[in-house]
Amino acid sequence: MIEDTGATNSTELYDVAIIGAGPGGLSAALNLVRARRRTIVIDSNRPRNAATFHSHGFITRDGVSPLELRRLAREELEEYLHYEFHQAVATSVTRVGDAFEVSTKAGLEKSIHRARTVVISTGTTEVMPNLPTLRAFYGTSIHSCIECDGYEERDKPIAVIGETGDLLDRALLASQWSDDIIVFTNGVGAVSEADEASLGAYGIRVDRRVLQDVVGDRTGLTGILTADGETIPRTAAFVRPVYEPRLEYAASLGLERAADGFLAVDSEGRTSVPGVYAAGDSATPGPRQLIVAAGQGARVASALGLDLVRAEAVDLPPRALTVK
To answer: What is the DSSP annotation of 207-270?
Structure first.
């Protein structure tokens, strides 16, 4: 029984509550409403890529703004009878009987929505190196996704900045677009001597100094400023964030995590809790690309629809990820 928290309780039982309206969540929603599943999408309208002017690699939409892509997707969804959108922050998800209750907050308004299944698609938070001016150039001449924006920065002097252990692979990936690359570890990132030798074979240098900031002007990035006062000329940079999943609201579900802290899922997005699925960056390793997240959303919708049919038609047990 729900405690009286002052929230408005929806009387409708949805087939699916999708938390997060990025490409993963919206792709799942489109496929689910086309399967005539009552679907509510809950989103705070605070996308991770809001600072990005252009997204790339999405077939038929190469160069479109991520915000425009979201707008177009929601416009398409509005044509379907079984779709509903609620702009709010999801604050908790709990299992109550045979359903899930998703609590939300929008300003002073609190609501509770009930659904038979839940799709988690709230993506990630990017934790950037502590460089004060980085955000001023982020989305224009500094990017986080090499696969997305490497082509636009082709043949430029490129900096690869990071504090993680995968800088070798990040720099090698960037070498497809430039032969003038410097890896900056900011005194933290892990590049072994063997890795540095491998990078050297590609003409890629490694600078292990602590960084003070990035510098630039109205034209964009012009250099990387080290703590000892030297400015290394660079006109483009790829920063390697630490990605953290946005999952605080789902803590009560006790979902299993993978070694990297993201949700453990099977190949179709089922989590360790029956009825809970994950689409997009909440569970997907690899490129943080819109088209990858959208593909995951479509796959989750297919699996979720089959699981609902199994439960409705033949009373078969729900499926969940088997954690080994």
So the answer is: E-SPEEEEEEETTEEEEEEETTS-EEE-SEEEEEPEEEE--GGGGGG---B-TTSSBP--TT-B
More confident residue, 3 or 269: 269
Q: 238 and 141 in contact (C-beta within 8 Å)?
A: no
Across 167-195, average pLDDT: 95
Cβ(127)–Cβ(241) below 8 Å:
yes
CA atoms within 13 A on the CB side of 110: 8
Q: Where are the alpha helices (DSSP H) in the chain?
A: 23-34, 66-77, 134-137, 146-149, 167-174, 193-200, 290-309
CA atoms within 13 A on the CB side of 21: 27
Find tokens 């002052």 and name the residue: 6
The half-sphere exposure of 13 on its side-chain side, counting CA atoms within 13 A, is 7
Under 8 Å between Cβ of 195 and 164 = no
Mean pLDDT of 217-235: 97
Residue 81 CA to its chain's centroid (Å): 28
Q: Is the pLDDT of residue 101 over 80?
A: yes
CA distance 30 to 65: 20
Residue 60 φ/ψ, nearest 5 degrees: 75, -5
Distance of alpha carbon 245 from alpha carbon 283, whole angstroms: 8
- From residue 141, alpha-carbon distances to 35, 55, 144, 297, 307 in Å are 42, 14, 10, 30, 45
Unique residue bearing structure tokens 């709990």: 94
